[in-house]
Design goal:
This protein is an alpha+beta fold and 151 residues long. 17% of the residues lie in helices and 42% in strands. It is built from 2 helices and 6 strands; from the N terminus they run E-E-E-E-H-E-E-H.
């Protein structure tokens, strides 16, 4: 049997770092993964995938990734059951992270966040998730600093 998940997306919020009763560290987060389709306004729809990372991966994510950061994860799909607030039994799915990849440098992340803040007319504050089409000819080219190039 094969249970393998690979996803690329943006963090919806900060990683929620917790500890089990035995002292193991884990981090809960949600990844916004853009779909290939667009709505009537031209925005891409997104799926919001719950995920969990354990030990050093969780600590690494909590220390270096922030809301909106682009990352890739690999892992396995896991189901769990719990009782809802209304007393109903619910089964949910989450990705257990086995591998993660930071897909942008801190400088690129900060630049992208400042561009979003300027576009919305705000200097600081929360920015909602939007995904621009990187191949849209109407969009200007993004300037990437020379030191951020991987070659």
């Amino acid at each position: 049997m094969l249970n393998h998940v690979s996803l690329t997306g943006h963090l919806v919020r900060e990683v929620e770092l917790k500890k089990t009763s035995s002292g193991l560290t884990f981090g809960l987060f949600t990844l916004a993964v853009a779909r290939g389709t667009r709505d009537e306004q031209g925005n891409r729809a997104a799926d919001f995938i719950r995920a969990i990372a354990w030990d050093k991966r969780a600590e690494l994510m909590a220390n270096y990734l922030h809301k909106g950061a682009l990352l890739g994860i690999e892992g396995r799909l896991q189901s769990f059951s719990h009782e809802s607030g209304e007393g109903q039994r619910r089964t949910e799915l989450e990705v257990v992270v086995q591998n993660l990849i930071f897909l942008e440098s801190r400088k690129v992340y900060e630049f992208r966040q400042s561009q979003k803040a300027q576009a919305s007319g705000a200097s600081t504050g929360a920015v909602s998730f939007t995904q621009a089409d990187p191949f849209d000819p109407a969009k200007p080219d993004v300037t990437v600093p020379q030191e951020d190039l991987p070659f």
